[in-house]
Structures are given as structure tokens and as C-alpha cells.
Amino acid sequence: MSKKYLKPAPEPPAIRDAMAKASQREEEGLPVYDFSSGNIGRLLMEYQIFDDFSLSLGQMPDTFRKVARALSEGIREAFVDSVQGLAYSPTGGTEAHKRNAGRYFRQVHGVPLGEGEESDKVIVTAGGQQAMAAALRSISPDVKVIAPRWDYAPVTGIASDASWEFEKLPPPKKGLGFSLNDLEETAEEGSVFYNSMPNNPSGFLSSEKLRGAAEIMAERDGAVIWDAPYLFTTFDLDGGGASFDADSLNETVEGFKKIARDYHENMCILSSISKTCLAAGIRFGFATASEEWIQNMNAIIGRENLSSPTASFIIGDKILQAFLDEDVKAHEWISKILAGRVNYLLENDLPLILPQNGKFGALYALLETEKRGDEFAQELSEEGIISVTAEPFYGKSVNAVRLSLVAVPYVEGDKLWKENVDTLKETLG
Ligand SMILES: Cc1ncc(COP(=O)(O)O)c(C=O)c1O
């Protein structure tokens, strides 16, 4: 069925199309007589620019070692075994990259992608952010796009220069997240609901809410954009404080998996290795959606970027492969730190705005403030304490700031974090 909420997918630019054909033939081992593009890095392709390369693993958390090994393999592939890293490569990912991203969506999100479907239903992007922007910019001008009151600030920014109508749901009467009744009332035929889940900035996550939203949007022939880079950085949060438990995380991931299995046809799912593998500087994100949606995203990204960040894609793909095949557990290390950091904020009685449904995700906590968040963040910054005003996440003025739980490096006993929080506490008086 055609998706009325999407723009008609434009033709790919001729140069990008030609480059993609050349690269696909090369991947398949077919002869290529390449007159396609100004891919100047290819002039060096028969040379080896580094004779000597060795990286030995240093001191790091054990759970990160497999990611570090994948990183070194990626660097080798991009710059030592060949000089591919200096050349253009297809925006949207090579077929091999898309296959791995497709495996992620199959294994983690339960999307029933058939063998070979990755080619048309998956895209690899320079980070989840690029996927998110392209997913939103694919939406038809006459469509209503809805988001929860608290949500990722750049979405409101993209909405401000998009021609579609944007509406934020009211804050729910109880807790964080959103009310399904509000969504039912706001969603029109063919609307699109964006939400980050686990949520940046509030930490809210609930598979029941996401399932409810998916059902509401599917009934209206609309869609859900599920921005999910934080799926693996989640932990339990109840009256006793925050704690990480691997079984509980698995249950959470399994709970979400059933949603994509049932509603994937009306969903665009976005993710990346940034958070799960602590690799935000390697720009490697991925999305899955209907063919029309992916075609739109490809066209949008391909218009602005002649090439993917080739080295990032090669390295990111290695890291993703390690995550899928080698049982990388770097996220468990992060989640334990996150839980400890939230506990330290709680022990200090800081006025946090936290989800009340027993779960917490993402990498931030909202701090309630006595005055407007922007004024408060400004005053804190004069003392060297850097937070982010919550206003752009809320969509209007609000008495809150967002505290990142990961900007302070981790050392044994998390002493640096404690020092930072102690200073914040002292300043708040
Ligand atoms: C909700 C959400 N989506 C997407 C992104 C983009 O992340 P990346 O581009 O590193 O994958 C972020 C980054 O913080 C985010 O919070």
C-alpha cells in the first residue's frame, strides 16, 4: 500500500547512482570499467601507504575489548590493507553494510526482514542523527507530525523549517512519557508520530506505550518513527534506587522486539552504534522502514553528501559485526555506571524528574529548577557547571535543565562524577 505520509521518492542523482553501480559490481566481483566519478582516492588503490601497522590493546574495561579489537580491524581495513578510507563510497551504505544493519534489526528489533530485503529496506547513515533528520524530511508537506512533550530537541528544530504541521502532545497528567488518549485525539489519518524510546531527555521507556502508539498510528494508516539508539543503556529504577540487571535488560529488549514484529510496516526504526558500543565519534547509524521511506532518505542524504564517511562506515561496520557476533557487552558496563550515577544524584537529594514506571534509559536526567531552565543553566555555567536548558526538549519554557550522565570520565569508584555532583549540590545550596 502506498504511504501517503511520504513525499514521492525522487530519482537518485545520476552521479551517485553511477557510483553505486560501480561499487555494487565491485562488491560482487564483477568486472567494472569505471568512468563514474571524481573518486580521486582510487588513484592510490593499487598502492599500500603504510608498511608498518600495529596496535596493541591497552588498559580498558574488559567489556570494551571486543569493540577495541573491531576498531583496530576497521582502521586496518580502511587505511592499511588498502586505502579505501581515502575514497568515496556510497551514501546509504554498501550492500554488505546494509546486510549487517539488517541483521541488527532482525536480531534486536525482531523486524522480519527477508533475505535480500536489506537492500531496499535498510539504510546506513552517518550516525543516527542523519537517519533521524532524513526520516523526518521524507514526510509529505500536508502531514501532521506529532511528538511527546519531552523529546529530542533537534526534532523540534527540523520541524521549524519543515512544511508539515508539528504538534507536541501535552505532558501526561501522571509521570513522564505520553498519554495514549492524547495521541488518539491528536493523530489524524496518515499522521506520523516521532518518539525517542528510551527517551532523551527524560529517560522514559515503556514497551506498552510504544505498542499503543504503533497501534493508533497503524489504524490511521500513519506511522511511528522510533528513535532507538538507547535501547541497550537501560536499567531498573524504583523506590530503592537504580540498579542494573542483565536479565531485566534482556526482558526489556524482548518486550520491544514484539512491537516491531507486529507493526514494522508502519514504522521507521532508527539506531546507531554510538551509545551501545561507546563509539559516538564513528559516524555509523542505520534505519529500517518501507522501501518508499528508505528511497526518500537515500535521495535526501545523497543530495547533500557525495560520499559516506568511508572510514567511519568501514570501522562502524566492524564494530556492529562484533556486537552481533561476539556478544559485546560494553553497554552493560555503561548501564552499571549510569545506575550508580543516578543513585549518587538521588543520595544527594537533587530534585530529579524521573520516570515512575520502574525503568530508566538514555544518558540524561532532568533536574527541576526554581527558575526557567535557560536562566538557571546560564547561572550555573558562570560557576563552570555546564548543563543544558530543557526548553528545546520541552518545546517551550520550562523550569528544568538536562544533566548528562556520561560527560564526566569514569575512574575507579567514580570519584570524578562524585566530585562534579558535590560541586553542583554545593552551588545549588
Ligand atoms: C534520541 C536521539 N536520537 C539520535 C541521536 C543521534 O545519535 P548518533 O548520531 O550519535 O547516532 C541522539 C544523540 O544523542 C539521540 O539522543
How would you describe this structure to a colleague?
- By secondary structure, the chain is an alpha/beta fold.
- It folds into two domains: 90-304, Aspartate Aminotransferase, domain 2 (3-Layer(aba) Sandwich); 330-428, Aspartate Aminotransferase, domain 1.
- It has 15 helices and 14 strands.
- The protein has helices at 14-27, 65-80, 95-109, 118-121, 128-137, 153-160, 180-186, 207-219, 246-263, 291-304, 310-325, 330-347, 373-382, 391-394, 415-428, and strands spanning 122-125, 144-147, 165-168, 192-196, 223-227, 234-238, 241-243, 267-272, 285-288, 352-353, 359-361, 364-368, 388-389, 400-404.
- It binds pyridoxal-5'-phosphate (PLP).
- Pyridoxal-5'-phosphate binds at residues 127-129, 132, 152, 196, 200, 227, 229, 272, 274, 280, 285.
Can you summarize the main beta sheet?
7 strands, mixed
Identify the CATH homologous superfamily of the largest domain. Answer: Type I PLP-dependent aspartate aminotransferase-like (Major domain)
Low-confidence stretches: none
Q: What is the CATH architecture term of the largest domain?
A: 3-Layer(aba) Sandwich
Spatial sequence of strands, sheet with the most strands: 1-9-8-5-4-2-3
Helix and strand run: HHHHEHEHEHEHEEEHEEHHHEEEHEHEH
Number of helices: 15
State the CATH class of the largest domain: Alpha Beta
Question: How many domains?
Answer: 2
Terminal-residue CA separation? 59 Å
Strand content: 5-15%
How many strands?
Answer: 14
Bound molecules: pyridoxal-5'-phosphate
CATH topology label of the largest domain: Aspartate Aminotransferase, domain 2
Task: Write down the overall geometry.
Answer: globular
Please estimate the helix content. 40-55%
Q: Kindly report the average pLDDT value.
A: 95
- Secondary structural class: alpha/beta
Rg calculated over all Cα atoms:
22 Å
